Amino acid sequence: MAAQTTYPRQVKEVMTRDVVALRPQQPFAQALALLAQHRFRHLLVTDDDARLAGVISDRDLLRCMSREADLERVTVADIMGAAVVTVQPDTSLSEAAAQMLSRRINCLPVIEHDKVCGILTSTDLLQAFHNLQTSIEQGGVPDAPQE
To answer: Which of 43, 84, 90, 133 is packed most tightly, with the most Cβ within 10 A?
Structure first.
């Protein structure tokens, strides 16, 4: 009997767990350096207890650079988006994808017990889709949920 392949169904199965976070009081230059160094498109902003304070995207940084004359005075808190949509680790991938599509966003911080435990990005979802599609094209059939 062939081994049955399982496919991810929840955020926790595909999210990025290794999160690089900033504090609100850190300077703009540190956010820019982190994005350049790690090639991320989003950074989470947390307080000292790992509670989410906001998100900074690469677009936020570009907007700031084009509008602000004195970048030395700009902090992470000045440019972060504070009204952030989040998910929990057990949120279904279809619900997370629906949230991202309907809100036209490319990341969802993952929160468990009021603390950041990961981030789900459009790249994470695209990788999961690629793995699933490759399996289908190679003759695999996704297992159906048991009713």
So the answer is: 43
Domains of the chain: 11-137 (3.10.580.10)
The structure tokens listed for 48 are 């000292």
The token duo for 106 is 């490319």
Question: Which of 36, 42, 37 minimizes the C-alpha distance to 19?
Answer: 42
40-59 tens-digit pLDDT:
899 999 999 999 999 999 99
What is the model's pTM? 0.85
Which segments of the chain does DSSP mark as H helices, in order?
A: 28-38, 58-67, 76-79, 93-103, 122-137
Paired strand residues for 104: none
CA-only gyration radius of the chain, Å: 18
